[in-house]
């Protein structure tokens, strides 16, 4: 764990220690809420998709006072929308950096800079689960108070670990938690982990694997990793549009490309066929977008050829389902753009 610290701190853009929890990403989100908020807090939560909803469910579960800034799915939150929603009594803002359910980026560095200027006492807690490791994240510079990520996204590991960093003022709050809970106690974990221990049995095998994935990222070079994500995401978007499909997000994140399901097709059945006959798992969408959109991932361990094959399978199956698509044009755009 000690050997993983430096690599994790680089990804988070922080000098603060990173704690590793044995849980999926949601456990890290719960740990932050439980350890750093108090019943007297009033929270503003951005809800622009499934994971925005999750922060709301969590704060509700702890009985906190929460106002919701709800946006239609596929929208990215703007500073002006936040300006209208944020009130002096809000002590904390909860937001995703990349809302994976809609494949949308929220302009976090801009939001953080505005918050620091407008209402510096308000804490900023960020679910960076599909942004850390995929695009630059500067926790200290931006003034983020709590950052969470998980093992199974850009860190390229199996699920089972979450990672949390806190600013000094959030860390101070975590020293005297007042919300109920036991397992997710960040103060206990910070105190143990700086001594090379953990509060409870850690997932040793995943931590060993983490060391290797951090080594891979280091070897490739973070700037190259970020550039690769940008390029694969852009080429995928352009190919999908060239194919004749429509993007579903107004500000696509580099994590995944969300695409509107063509009219009149049962997209879930097509995705199932793609998985069964070609071996590519293209994700459907959840909640409001179920059956109406789908998502192609390019987060983490991907080569251009993975996506080229996935696009071929997608175009082929849509064509067989009598959707008018131009697969050759899509492949040409993809190949030309990435100079394959
Ligand atoms: C994956 C993900 C999570 C965490 O989900 P778990 O299933 O608990 O790992 C939270 N937020 C976002 C934005 C995610 O993409």
Outline of this structure?
The protein is α/β, with parallel strands linked by helices and 340 residues long.
Anisotropy-based shape: globular
List SSEs in N-to-C order. Answer: HEHEHEHEEEHEHEEHHHHEHEEHH
Count the strands?
Answer: 12
Q: What summary fits the major beta sheet?
A: 7 strands, mixed
- Give the structural class: alpha/beta
Taken as a percent bin, the fraction of beta residues is 15-25%
What are the distinct ligands in this entry? pyridoxal-5'-phosphate
Flag low-confidence runs.
none
**Distance N terminus to C terminus?**
38 Å
Helix count from the secondary structure assignment: 13
* Fraction of residues in H or I helices: 40-55%
Q: Calculate the mean pLDDT score and round it.
A: 97
Q: What is the C-alpha radius of gyration, as a whole number of Å?
A: 20 Å
